[in-house]
Amino acid sequence: MIRLNVFISVEAVNRAKVLYAAIELTASSVKEEGCIAYDIFESATRSNVMLICETWKDSEALSNHEKGATFIKNIDILKEFASIKLEKFNF
C-alpha cells in the first residue's frame, strides 16, 4: 500500500477556493478503484494549514488516480493557490 500525506499551506484569501478543490478531489477519489482511504484534515491551531491523507492499494491505482480529469483539474488549483508538501510512504 501507499500512503500520501499532502500538506497544504494557503493564505486566507484563497482558503475557500483551495478547500473546495480539496473537497471535490476527495469526493471523486474515494470512488476510485484501489483507493483505501482519502480524507481532508484542517489544523486546529493554524487556519492556513490543511492535510490530505491518502492510502492507495498499489502504485497502479495511484498512477491511474493521477491521470484522472478530476485530479488534474483540482491539483492545478491547489498548486496555483497554495503551497504543497508531499510525503510518500510504502508499506
List the helices and strands and how they pair.
Elements (H helix, E strand, L loop, with lengths): L1 E8 L5 H15 L5 E8 L6 E8 L2 H9 L1 H13 L1 E8 L1
Antiparallel strand pairs: 1-3, 1-4, 2-3
Could you characterize the architecture of this molecule?
By secondary structure, the protein is of the alpha+beta class. The chain has one domain: 2-Layer Sandwich (Alpha-Beta Plaits), CATH 3.30.70.100. It is 41% helix and 35% strand. It has helices at 15-29, 59-67, 69-81, and strands at 2-9, 35-42, 49-56, 83-90. It has a four-stranded antiparallel sheet with strand order 2-3-1-4. Strand 2 (35-42) and strand 3 (49-56) form a beta hairpin. Helix 1 (15-29) runs antiparallel to helix 3 (69-81). The model has no long low-confidence stretch (mean pLDDT 97).
